Amino acid sequence: MEKISTKTELPEYSESIVNTVREPLIVMDQHLRVITASRSFYDFFRAEPKDTIGKLIYNLGNNQWDIPKLRDLLETILPQKTSFDGYKVEHDFTTIGWRTMLLNARQIEHSQSKDHIILLSIEDITERNAIQEGLVKANKELEILTKDLGRAAQVKSEFLANMSHELRTPLNSINGFSEVLYDETFGPLNDKQKQYVKNVLVSGNHLLLLINEILDMAKVEAGKMTLSISELPIQEILYEITGLIKDTANKKNLKMIIDISKDLKNIQADSLKIKQVLYNLLSNAIKFTPDGGEIGIKATQTDTEIQIVLWDTGIGIALENIEKIFEGFFRIETPYSRVTEGTGLGLPIAKKLVELHGGKLKVESEGNEKGTSVQITLPIKHTTTVIRDENKNSHS
What we know:
EC number: 2.7.13.3
CATH class of the largest domain: Alpha Beta
Strand order of the largest sheet: 2-1-5-4-3
Enzyme class: transferase
Number of helices: 11
Number of domains: 3
Shape: elongated
InterPro entries: HATPase_C_sf, HATPase_dom, His_kinase_dom, HisK_dim/P_dom, HisK_dim/P_sf, PAS, PAS-like_dom_sf, PAS_4
CATH architecture of the largest domain: 2-Layer Sandwich
Catalytic activity: ATP + protein L-histidine = ADP + protein N-phospho-L-histidine
Protein name: histidine kinase
Low-confidence stretches: 1-8, 385-396
């Protein structure tokens, strides 16, 4: 069988080029016998030159290279196309195990002898292929998990909304009848009876607050919380809310500092939702500020925003809890939290309501016993294009 001379076809500089190639490379004659191979080939496939040079490629490594797909490439595809890239071959080698390879082949005609030589480069993509397959599998599993979580969250929100709605009707009756009894509308009560009725009424009102907050949270998470936008005189609203909590602050001997800029522009917002946010935040400031402390509110404006800061000199928040306070039902364990009522939903709801208006809510504290500052930014003009009054479409 005729054999191309290595010296004739591959001079020294060509040998150097072959050995410079990073990927395993085999050079064969037209009869598919190996003329030379790169160092990377020997290293990767754990082969020796004496067992490689002059051998038919299919006979290499005790016939390890007798691969049907490789035969198809070299004997059928390459003679017709003279070159081929990215030909995927998978094979289990006795020396290096299962491998996934991409083969690039070139058939070159010698200018003088008209003989052909074949260049075959081998790119091992076993790990890359495994990673890609793993990523594809992980992505599919993640998609399924995301859908499952979405459905679970939707079911949870709908359950909480329905449950809260169903609970409010009998609870309103309990609270209403308790008020009638406490007011002694149908006759006097002795001291013990009146105290018991008062306990029922206080507990009922607390439970109603909890149910309302759960309902609000469920609506927001389910995307069912809508806004009834109107022109809102924010300056009047701020004075109205501070007036509502003034008596509560006085009972704890708290000094209230009010700094509201004159001539604040009206904003486009939902009046009930904004009042709910401001009242809850100021109530929190009073609740978590010891007797004799200070609370305050400051309001300023830019051309496009109203900026409101509500602050206190109360118990503060540890730095590691700043983000946690926006998680539903999270309450910081302090001596005050053990004696004050609350669901842990006030701040998350306030934040979501502000964001629903296109604004931002941020909480800052330098640590325990160092007070808290809540910063609210509200756009003067609301940008939502479709607004409907949820009170007109709700039976809750």
